[in-house]
Amino acid sequence: MSAPQRVPSPETWARDLGRSLRPFRPATARWRLALIDGPNMSNLGEGGRDRRTYGSINSIGELQGTIAALADGLGVALSAYQSNREGDIVAYIYDRIEEVDAFLINPAALTRYGAPCALALADSRKQYVELHFANIATVGWFDGAMITRKATGVVMGLRHYSYIGATFGLVCSLDADSLVPRS
């Protein structure tokens, strides 16, 4: 009988994944990313959001720590923020414009009406990726979110794996843009 396999922590797994993906990046810049989680995301985990939609993540802290570890493995820095108040999220975006190269945002409860967030992200003139645990088109939102309209990309429907795909995709997009000669 074989010994049970030890399951690595989410952070260890994500850092190792980032390290394994690092050679596939088009460049090697140490980008600075900001991850923003909107209203209701603080309810992840036990007694919170539906696990059929939101997966096995136990808390917003675990999710953000996992994605920060992935970013570290990829060779980039990631700061994470969550608020249940749109005004705080807007202030966070404006306060970070000079400190970050790009944003990742799960607008969560702001998906349909987040015009102030959409304006702040557009004003930043930074790339950003919108992400969602669920496929928002399944609830009839085929036109996306307010934030979608100027997003570099949208990743949705893959539970917490949407964050992994969005992070790697955004880093590669920043890398690719950095290789284009400026005229």
Structural overview:
The protein has about 180 residues and is of the alpha/beta class. It has six helices and five strands; from the N terminus they run H-E-H-H-E-H-E-H-E-E-H. It has a five-stranded parallel sheet with strand order 2-1-3-4-5, with helices on both faces. The longest helix is centred in the last third of the chain and has 18 residues, at about 160-180.
Describe the SSE topology.
Blueprint: H1 10-21, E1 32-37, H2 51-54, H3 60-74, E2 77-82, H4 86-96, E3 102-106, H5 115-124, E4 127-132, E5 153-156, H6 161-178
Parallel strand pairs: 1-2, 1-3, 3-4, 4-5
Helix pairs in contact: 1-3, 3-6, 4-5
CATH class: Alpha Beta
Helix content: 25-40%
Give me the CATH fold name.
Rossmann fold
Separate helix tally: 6
Please name the CATH architecture: 3-Layer(aba) Sandwich
The oligomeric status of these chains comes to single chain
Percent of sequence in beta strands: 5-15%
Quick one: biggest sheet? 5 strands, parallel
Estimated radius of gyration: 16 Å
- For the terminal residues, how far apart are their CA atoms? 65 Å
Kindly name the structural category: alpha/beta
Along the chain, the helix and strand elements come as: HEHHEHEHEEH
Mean pLDDT: 89
* Biggest β-sheet: strands ordered side by side in the sheet: 2-1-3-4-5
How many structural domains? 1
Task: Assign an overall shape.
Answer: globular
CATH superfamily heading:
Dehydroquinase, class II
Low-confidence runs (pLDDT<50, min 5 residues)? none
